[in-house]
Amino acid sequence: MKTLLPLKKSCILIFVALASCAPQTKVLQPAGDRAEVAIRNRPTFFGELLAVSDSTVLFKIESATASALPQEKIISVRVDDLQSITITGYSNKSWVTPLLLFEVVPALLLTAAASSAEAEAGAVLLVFSIPPALTLLAFATSTPPAPKFEHPFTPAQLESLRKFARFPQGLTPEQLEQLLAANQQSNIRRFE
Fold it and tell me: How does the average pLDDT of the chain come out, rounded?
């Protein structure tokens, strides 16, 4: 019976290790990308990018930095009034904390231990800082910046912005009616 106990523990450890290696799956939803929107002389807000036309952009407001935004959730903003649109969620910096915890902190602790053993602390720190520096360089160069579109918006920029919208081809009248009904609105609020 004693020989089975280590086998059970080994199986549990192997199972936990394999389960932690499972890839994360992203559930695709019919939604536009989240954007940070800056309007000229108005508060910045976050919202879902719904549709883009040559003259207006349609948003569903999620949150704002000020209370000067309309009460309606579905708004349209003229392209000429937009200062910038930054698409969020594409630039992932979640690697910073693990880099600090698992590479920088151990390098500092090893340097402190080496200096207490009368070793040259500067040389030890230099040697132990090489792996974190290489990791930082690899992640920093491979992390793309967030897509950002700024005034003046050219037709090419608007075309590129459409791919982040929930309705990249535009809204049909039926789709617009359903969208407004789902958000308890009778019409689109034009935000100027």
Answer: 81
**pLDDT value, residue 84:** 93
- The amino acid that residue 74 corresponds to is I
State how far the Cα of 94 lies from the Cα of 48, in Å rounded to an integer: 22
Beta bridge partners of 148: 86
Q: Got the DSSP string for 28-73? A: P-S-PPEEEEEETTS--EEEEEEEE-SSEEEEEEEEESSTTS-S-S
Give kind and range of the element (H or E) at residue 20. helix 4-20
Domain ranges of the chain: 34-91+145-191, 96-142
The CA distance from 48 to 75, in Å, is 11
pLDDT at 83: 92
CA distances from 144 to 10, 51, 115, 174 (A): 40, 24, 39, 37
Number of Cβ within 10 Å of residue 46's Cβ equals 16
Task: Return the exposure string of 97-109: e unless at least 16 CB atoms fall within 10 Å of the residue's CB, then b.
Answer: eeeeeebbeebee
Q: How far apart are CA 170 and CA 83, in angstroms?
A: 22
